[in-house]
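Researcher: Let's do a round of design. I'm pasting the structure tokens now; please hold your answer until I've finished.
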């Protein structure tokens, strides 16, 4: 399929995170170096702490430049979907991509991929899609084509999807890949600073407010949650990505095995983020109660119900999981 030069479109999911951008740009760097004509697209803008990434200037945002994206969709022979597995996560870009005749290839690590793909490279046990991109290049016999730029993108995806190596990273293979990325010249400490030590003052104060004023700990259920109205976010002049790790602080409380963040978006949708410790799975909960999905310990959803109704749904489900939430290991 990739033996001759192709017109290729790479797309990742809405609300893009470090792995969405890292895997898309690493694949972009590789396929471009192989001589293909490649476009890369996300549905809505990514947070500013990812803008340093190599090839980032190639990234098209459907919400901002639909015409350029539609042209790339029209001319693509191959379509790579990275870091998501259901076309619904393309938001408003879903319909044009559905009607494209390009062969659809999935590279991802979420459970239950859609039937919409002709080829699925999907491993749910792997830390990140970026790690799978490394394996994809390696398995294609092209490991030596992994430049420092491509290595930086892969590293950024692994570091963000494992919460700086704190979950989904109990595999020797991940560290072997990381060692090879360092051999290719990446500066891990510098990348860490670019991603994590780059908060705006407003973002830091929103985090402080969320923990101090909005965190609700439900000791009886080993659960905690934070909910934020649009008005509260506006008070802290929120930017894309400012809410990203708030939920993890709720989970950091000892004895809390399930944490949730709910916040209102400008389009009226309520964003749900769920996190858990150990063997308590949140992806099933995200799917069943909020029409979302994700991984065992990190899942999310977009709720069309109001903020208070969404929180009420969460509070209602807790008694059903009381025993499981007590015995997490
Ligand atoms: P986050 O809470 O950081 O937005 O997302 C955590 C995980 O859940 C990510 O792996 C993400 O891909 C997945 N996720 C987030 N939102 C949705 C959603 O609306 N639908 C599905 N299927 N998965 C989601
Ligand atoms: Mn991922």
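Researcher: That's everything. Go ahead.
Model: Designed sequence:
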């Amino acid at each position: 399929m990739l033996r001759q030069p192709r017109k290729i479109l790479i797309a990742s999911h809405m609300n893009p995170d470090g792995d969405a951008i890292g895997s898309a740009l690493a694949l972009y760097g590789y396929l471009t170096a192989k001589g293909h004509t490649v476009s890369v697209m996300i549905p809505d803008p990514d947070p500013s702490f990812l803008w340093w990434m190599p090839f980032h200037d190639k990234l098209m945002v459907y919400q901002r430049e639909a015409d350029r994206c539609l042209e790339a969709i029209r001319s693509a022979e191959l379509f790579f979907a990275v870091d998501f597995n259901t076309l619904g996560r393309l938001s408003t870009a879903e319909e044009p991509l559905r009607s494209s005749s390009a062969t659809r290839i999935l590279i991802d690590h979420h459970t239950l991929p859609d039937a919409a793909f002709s080829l699925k490279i999907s491993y749910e046990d792997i830390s990140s899609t970026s790690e799978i991109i490394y394996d994809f290049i390696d398995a294609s016999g092209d490991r030596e084509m992994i430049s420092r730029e491509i290595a930086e993108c892969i590293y950024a995806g692994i570091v963000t999807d494992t919460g700086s190596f704190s979950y989904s990273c109990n595999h020797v293979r991940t560290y072997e890949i990381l060692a090879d990325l360092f051999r290719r010249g990446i500066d891990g400490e510098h990348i860490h600073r670019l991603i994590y030590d780059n908060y705006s003052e407003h973002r830091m104060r929103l985090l402080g407010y969320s923990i101090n004023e909005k965190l609700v700990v439900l000791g009886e259920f080993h659960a905690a949650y934070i909910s934020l109205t649009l008005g509260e976010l506006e008070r802290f002049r929120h930017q894309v990505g400012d809410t990203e790790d708030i939920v993890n602080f709720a989970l950091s409380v000892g004895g809390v095995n399930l944490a949730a963040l709910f916040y209102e978006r400008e389009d009226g949708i309520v964003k749900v983020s769920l996190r858990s410790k150990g063997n308590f799975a949140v992806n099933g909960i995200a799917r069943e109660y909020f029409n979302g999905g994700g991984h065992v310990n990190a899942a999310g959803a977009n709720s069309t119900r109001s903020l208070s109704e969404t929180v009420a749904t969460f509070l209602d489900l807790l008694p059903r999981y009381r025993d499981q939430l007590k015995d997490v290991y």
